[in-house]
Each structure stands twice: as structure tokens, then as C-alpha cells.
Amino acid sequence: MTGLPTDRDSFGSKFGVIAATAGSAVGLGNIWRFPLVTTQNGGGAFLLLYIGFVLIIGIPVMLSEFSIGRRAQQNAFGSFKKLAPKTPWFMVGFLGILTAFAILAFYSTVAGWTFEYLFQSISGKLLTVDNMEENFSDFSTGTVRPLFWQLLVMLITGVVVYAGIKKGIEKFTKILMPVLVLLILFVAVRSVTLEGAMEGVRYLFLPDWSVVNFKTVLMALGQAAFSLSIGMGTLITYGSYIQKDNHLLSTSTQVALTDTFVAILSSLMVIPAIFAFSDVVVSDLSPGPGLVFEVLPNVFNAMPGGVIFSAIFFGLLSLAALTSTISVLEVVVAWLKEELRLTRKAATIIASISITLLGILATLSFGELREFTIFGKTIFGLLDYASANIMLTFGALLIVIFVGWKMGESDFLEEISNRGTIQSVFFKIIFYIIRYIAPVAIGIITIANFFISGIV
Ligand code: PHE
Predict the structure, then answer these.
(1) Which CATH number fits the domain that encloses residue 326?
(2) Which of 98, 103, 355, 399 for a ligand 1 pocket mutation test, highest count of atoms within 8 Å of Cβ?
(3) How far away, in angstroms, is 111 Cα from ligand 1 center?
(4) How confident is residue 3, by pLDDT bands cut at 50, 70 and 90?
(5) Site to substitute for ligand 1 among 37, 113, 227, 322, most atoms within 8 A of C-beta
(6) How far does residue 4's CA lie from ligand 1's centre (Å)?
(7) Residue 412 lies in a domain
């Protein structure tokens, strides 16, 4: 009798739920991507837009996903099939599986880079480098080394996922998340207390609205979705492992706030240090993934005790990446396991290998496959842009429409109030945000984006 809800693995404690979900949310999106898109999209103004999206869209979508998963007790695909049988809603789950492939493919490339830089920090090599741009490009355009690290990332991810929810994902994140937050605080405090760092802090917190346009708004929404791990069913999958007495609104709020706090701390780690130690003008930084791999290592080298900080920084980046990669792989594994009735072992092996194959293309798109472009973007660039700004935002749109219009008020309220055992004035307000405000806001931004990118 496989597949019955009682057979399913689940999280063992409330802290375990928070650690695993915050582990998914906090990742390269916060530490590598957030400072990058913030500096490319106007600093403080972008930050404010971002926080607005986390509050009005992020938390409601998170709660929607949790309630879908916990109610259905199924993977992201099976949940829609169960809650809306004989309708095409399962396509939303399928979109989520595709998005998981896209994200993990390029994410494991960057996670691999962080392992290389951790290695270079510990071995002392980074200290001896004169030209950081050259160091990064020599490494990232190569073949064997970046692929080696990517495979290692996928292997560790696979091992944790194979161990299951309680014994794998929960155990791993319960230990790592507190360590991670403490390390980030430590490096952020160091960065903002450097001489000259205040200019960077000002850049981050003083908004310049003149640079904001529709593209900025879209990037802020895409970044919020990416960073909160919403829009593709990660939280539907995790939600299906959450106990029935968990206060889902409180869990969502705690996770969203932790993630936002870490995103802000990460910018405080990266941007003020750059202002303090290098002659790079932040707004002139060339677009590209190199910010934390080119500019920051120079900063570490110029800083007293820099070796230690660089090892801590790349170490925490690697750990943050792993607590996210496991959540993406679990989406695909849960789907294969429950829909194709595979064992967890077989599902993990098949999912890891097939995602790795796509991931190899993403990694090679900096080297051998550099010239190969689609819509003017390399494979890596396309996977990054399309997943965050198109697939996740579209997924989030469909999820709120599903909860607001298909699942409906009474089922949703029943789920988030734990069958009426908890009350909150926010429940109804959030339902109305999910039904009206979130779809309109996400819809406008999604449609406007099609016009801007020239697709329409
Ligand atoms: N939220 C993760 C990060 O910020 C990335 C992620 C996206 C994980 C979508 C799961 C799903 O790094």
C-alpha cells in the first residue's frame, strides 16, 4: 500500500520545518545573486521594491504553496491532480518540475564555483593571485575543474536527498542554518566597520528612484520569487511534509523575514566592502556573474585577516548553496517517487543524473559552448534569466489563481487555521490578497515583461 499519506516521511519538529524551508530560501540567491542584481538595478530603490514584493506577494504565495502541499500530502504535480482532479491544473506542477531542472542546472554551476573558491582560499592560492578577473575567467572557462566541482555538488545533494526528509534534509539543515546565519552576521559586521564602508551602506539604503523602470520592477519580483523559493512547488513539496498542527502563517512569515534579513546582510557583506577596498565604481561593474568571484577576492586580499574572511565567506556560500540544492532536487525526486512509484533511491539517481546532464551544458557555456547562444543568451544566461524572471513569476501567478479561485476561501481557511483551531485576523486579508491583489500585480508585471523583452 505505497503512497498512502501515513507512509510518507515528514519533518519531525517545528524548528526542523523552519530550518529546512529557510535553508531552501537562503542560498546563492541571497549572497551571490541579490548583491549582483541590486547593484545593477539601482541599489536602494531596488531594495525597497524587493521588500515590498516579499511582503505583499512573497508571504501569500508561500502560504498558498504550503497549504496546497499539506492539504494534498503529495508532490508538486500530484498535489494539483489530487486537489483538482480531471482538470489541466496538474500542468502547473509540471511547470514546477521543469523549473526545478532549469534552476538546479545553472545553480550547481555557481555552487561548484564557490567550492573552487573555498579550496583556493584554504590552499592559499587566492592570496597569491594578482589579477582576479583572469583567475576567474581561467577557471570558469575551463572544463575539468568546474565540472568536477559541479559533480561534487550534485553528489552531496543526492546523498542528502536520498537519506530522506527527517534523516537527510531536516538533520542537515538543522545543523547548518544556525551556523550559516552566525557566519553571515560576523562577516557583515566586519564589512560595514571597514573604513570607507559607509558610502556603500548609503548606496544600499538611499533610494535613487530615477533609475527605476519596468524592468527593475520585474527583476525585483523575479529576485523575490527566486530568493523565497516560490513559484515552482518547492514549498508545495516541503508543505506536504509539515505536521497538521503547524501554524503555517507563522512559519511562512518567519522564513520570509529570515530570508530577507539574510539578503540584506549579504549585501552588507559584499557592497560596503567593495566601496571600502577597491577603486571599482559599483554602478560601472560589468554585468556578469563575477562580482563575488572577481571583486570580492581583491577586497579580501587587501583586508587584514582576509584569508580567514575569504575562507569563511566561500565556505558559507557553499553551505547555503547546498541547503538550497537539496530542496530543488527533492521536488523532482518526490515527483518521480510518487508518480512513477519508484524507490527513493532510484528516483534520486535518475533525477540527479538527468539534471547533471543539463547542468554540464550550463557550466560549459562559459568555456567550450561560449559561442552557443539562444535569444542572445548563453545556456547559463538563459536558464538563469528564464527561471527567475519568467518561469517562477508565471508559476507564482498560477499558484495564487489556483488558491484564490479554484481551491477557494473555505478550503484555504480550513487548511491554514488547522481546521479552525487557530484564528487570526490576517487569514481573511491574506486570502483577499491571494485572490485579487497578487494575481493582478504579478499579471501586470509578467505581461509588461513580454512587451519589454520584445517577445510581443
Ligand atoms: N531560494 C534559493 C536561493 O535563494 C534558490 C531556489 C529557488 C531554491 C527556487 C529552490 C527553489 O538561493
Answers:
(1) 1.10.4160
(2) 103
(3) 12
(4) very low
(5) 227
(6) 29
(7) yes
Phi, psi of 451 (to 5 degrees): -65, -45
Among residues 320, 266, 327, the alpha carbon closest in space to that of 20 is found at: 327
275-333 confidence digits (pLDDT tens): 887 666 666 665 567 778 988 888 888 888 889 989 999 999 999 999 999 999 999 99
Verdict on whether the full-model pTM lies above 0.90: yes
- Residue 424 in any domain: the answer is yes
Mean pLDDT of 371-376: 88
Domain that residue 94 falls in: 14-453
> What is the residue with the minimal CA distance to atom 7 of ligand 1?
229
Ligand 1 touching residue 25 (CB < 6 A): yes
Number of domain units in the chain: 1
In a domain, 264, yes or no: yes
Q: Do the domain assignments include residue 437? A: yes
